[in-house]
Amino acid sequence: MGITQILFWFLSVLALFSAIMVVVSKSPIPSVLWLIFVFFAITVQYILLNAQFLAIVNLIVYAGAIMVLFLFIVMMLEIKPDGRPLGPLLRQWLPALLLCGVCLIVMTVFLLLAAGGAGPLPLVTASPLAFGRFLIQKYWLGVEIASFLLFVALVGALYLGRGNGTTGG
Amino acid sequence: MHSLLLTIDWVLVIEKAVLISVIIGVSLLIAMYETYAERKVAAFMQDRRGPSRAGPGGIFQPLADGLKLFMKEEIIPTSSNRMLFVLGPGLAMLTAMMTSAVVPWSSHFNLFGREVSMQIADINIGILYIFGVVSMGVYGVMIGGWASNNKFSLMAAIRGASQIISYELAMGLAIIALLMITGSLSLKTIVEQQQAGHYYVLLQPLGFLIFLVCAFAECNRTPFDLSEADSELNMGFHQEYSSMKLGFYLFAEYINVFISSAVMSTLYFGGYDIPFVNDAALGQHIGQNPLAALQAFCLFLKVVCFIFFFMWVRWTVPRFRYDQLMNLGWKVLIPLAMANMLATGFFLLLKENHWHF
Fold first, then answer.
1. Which of A113, B184, B271, B294 has the smallest number of CB atoms closer than 10 Å to its CB?
2. Rounded to a whole number, what is the distance in Å from the CA of A169 to chain B's nearest CA?
3. Each residue of B105-143: pLDDT tens digit?
4. Whole-complex ipTM
5. Measured between alpha carbons, how far is B116 from B137 in angstroms, rounded to an integer?
6. Dihedral pair phi/psi, residue B117, rounded to 5°
């Protein structure tokens, strides 16, 4: 077992454990913090696959920006567990279990369909330059559409956040 | 187990471990003396003498301060979230330290027949790594402020975090213009390009100015230290902290100042390049090891100039109001950075076209 395998298993266990903690945490703030751990573990997994650019973008966008906003909202709302029962256990767990089961089945089917079964993925290092060229040359339409959608969302958020115009600011 | 031992290049591991401990030690030492320098600079600006009792010229003052912080009683508020309360300062310190991994502190030494690079990791995403770690730095402030379970701390934490997020945007846009020129994200490559050509501050003066302002905001330094505005928030996000946990927050700020000075020197002022001297020719003359030492010293001098500038501004410019801060970030710096980016792109294309339309 090389250092890569040890890291892989360690990170996988960390990611899975943190993911479970996200779900079972009673209060939302630890839940958000565990989710950051999940993203962190996945980022390092990307680095193990030599996808450095993907890793760092994952870290900046998800852990650095989106989770901060999550944390912001949760802190502002100040949700506290008030000891109320959350309904019957079955109703809590059944949807999650169903969804997980479906995902597991789909994944197993795909794994079985993949010819050859287990095989090592070819290791390639994509420099940011090559990655950028590839993205802009091959998928420029997708990039443009995505950025336009984000822009529309931004304008929409601005419109909603402005209120009815009487409060100003 | 046997094969495990074989797969690791132990010499490399030891080399990097030594380098990491040296850099962390030096960062801590510099942060320590930054506190001293801050008080001395403040005294100089205000026509006082500053700390002068501990040792000659007060040179042992940081040791006394550190000892004081260690000896103080440690209080963890009963209503706080204990685990996160302890995690906050640790996280702040960790993220402050982690940034130093991609900064090239000098070229390389030839020791024991090996070429020892003075950069912990020359990854091809250097600048993005710094951004990633800086964006993690928000959590130190946010978690600490929230876990204190104090309204003022929470408000300060939210202020600090929103400020850091806002200024990160302008910072990123300022960097994009620089990256369009360099074509590389590796800090080492950027320094080598500057050694061969001009310092990038000459090509990107506006970008540098934006980066500088954003660096002040990212470090929570005056005039952007709204998360520590004591007149409005009692003391800030670390109000409930005492002893060395408070020390960690204060220390992390000084380490951030040091590291951002190093990053600014690297990106815009040639990094470890010796100004007005052809480094390669000098290296032939005096040998690689003295050259590398000289280069490290030059970077250190540049960093010290920036640190002094940080302190100079602190004792000159008063704190912004919160709406002024947000207006500056979103309505001035971001449009300026975008204009800078467009102008840079325009000139680059024009240059590729041999200055013809």
1. A113
2. 10
3. 888 888 777 788 888 887 778 888 888 888 888 888 888
4. 0.78
5. 30
6. -75, 140
